[in-house]
Design brief:
Layout lengths: L9 E4 L8 E8 L4 E4 L4 E6 L9 E6 L2 E2 L3 E4 L6 E2 L1 E8 L2 E8 L5 E9 L4
Bound molecules: zinc ion.
Length: about 120
């Protein structure tokens, strides 16, 4: 299954305490369909000290959030947009792209396949 959001994307947060902020996806969990976005959805986490291994303390970490809570900021038109997929065929090669539903530009290549000749 292809996800509309992936690591390295700039996204706008749609809900929660960081609503409206724009940041970068650091991690996509394909199992749960959640993303970790840099400096977004921060929570304090208490970490216990382990003698000789690490110091204890309170750390601020990003909590994963559902993909549906973020929207891609299109690298072409710089607007938050919904993402679509489309397949184009050229010279016997099928290419699947993510594209921006606002400006209709291809964002990046998802995969390419040689057409099977029958
Ligand atoms: Zn666009």
């Amino acid at each position: 299954m292809a996800f509309k959001i992936k690591k390295g994307d700039r996204v706008k947060v749609l809900a929660g305490k960081d609503k409206g902020k724009v940041s970068v996806v650091e991690f996509l969990d394909t199992k749960s369909g959640k993303v970790v976005v840099k400096n977004i959805n921060m929570a304090k986490k208490h970490v216990k000290a382990i003698e000789g291994v690490r110091e204890g303390g309170i750390f601020e970490i990003e909590l994963p959030m559902p993909i549906s809570k973020v929207m891609l900021v299109c690298p072409k038109c710089a607007k938050p947009t919904r993402v679509g997929f489309r397949i184009e065929e050229k010279d016997g090669v099928l290419r699947k792209y993510r594209y921006c539903k606002k400006c209709n530009e291809n964002i990046d290549l998802v995969y390419e396949k040689n057409k099977v000749k029958r």
